[in-house]
Structure formats: C-alpha cells, structure tokens
Amino acid sequence: MSSSYSVPNLVLDEIDKTILSMLHENSRVSYTDIAKEVDLSRVAVQMRINNLTEKGVIEKFTTVINPTKIGIHVSAFFNVEVEPQYLEEVAAKLAEEHSVTSLYHMTGPSKLHMHGIFEDNHEMEKFMTEKMYPLRGVVSVDCQILIKRYKSRMGMKL
C-alpha cells in the first residue's frame, strides 16, 4: 500500500502532507521555515504550494477571528426545512447573509444546516423574523444556541 494520499488526479507525497500540515497550523509560516522542515529549497516549497493552490487542494489562506473578542456573542446552529422546489433559492439567499458562516444541504427531506453568528439574541431574532422566515419555501426552523466551544476545526487536517 502506498504512503501517498490520493485526490482525483493528484497524489500527495509526505512532503506535500508536511507542507499542508504546517500551513494548517499557521498559514503565515514562511517558505524558508517550511523548506528547513522538509529539506527543500524555498523556491521548491513555493512551487509546491502554488501547485497545491492551482489544483484546488488549498482553497484559500485566511484569518480566523474570535467573534467574542469583537462583540459577537451569539453563535447558533439552524436546521431549516425547505420545500424541495425552493431549496436552491433559499440556500442562495441565506448564503448571501453576512451573519451566516456556513451552510450545507444535509440528508433528509430538503434540510439545510446553517451556522450563524450574531451580536446578541435581539440581532438573531431580527435575522430569523426578517430574513429567514419570510423566504418562500421555508417550512420550519430549528435553532440551537451554542453554549461552549470545545473544538472548532477550519478545513481539513492531515
């Protein structure tokens, strides 16, 4: 069995996995620091990262902001049941909302699973009553407010 992980049309070797792991831990790590770890030149590391980006393995580099540090205190998960013929329309409208951080189509009868963040309960209620409930095709909404975060994973860790 090969030690490489296969992605359609792409094989990640141990060097790629190490590079991805280091970037996942700290996307600001320098090419030089990565090069020292994987025993390649800085230019070779840069070429590998560019290739991983071009192939779509690396989708983007980002900054993760702690919402409570900037006054956003309500984190909520929603299960939204939608009439099947309106699923794409509702998903597109919800995806445009600034407070929606993730949105997925889940198994089950036309279920959308969504995460949103809000300054307070009043802002969440306003979002629900003015933005979500009026959407054509929304049948029901189940909301659960996050009490405590133990782990949050951004992307995939190898």
Automatic annotation (TrEMBL):
Segments forming domain HTH asnC-type: 12-73
Name of the featured protein: Lrp/AsnC family transcriptional regulator
Keyword Translocase found: no
Pfam families, sorted: AsnC_trans_reg, HTH_24
InterPro entries from the UniProt entry: ArsR-like_HTH, AsnC-type_HTH_dom, Dimeric_a/b-barrel, Tscrpt_reg_AsnC-like, Tscrpt_reg_AsnC/Lrp_C, WH-like_DNA-bd_sf, WH_DNA-bd_sf
CDD domains with a match to the protein in the record: HTH_ARSR
Organism in which the protein naturally occurs: Niallia taxi
GO biological process, one term: response to amino acid
Xref: Gene3D superfamilies: 3.30.70.920, Winged helix-like DNA-binding domain superfamily/Winged helix DNA-binding domain
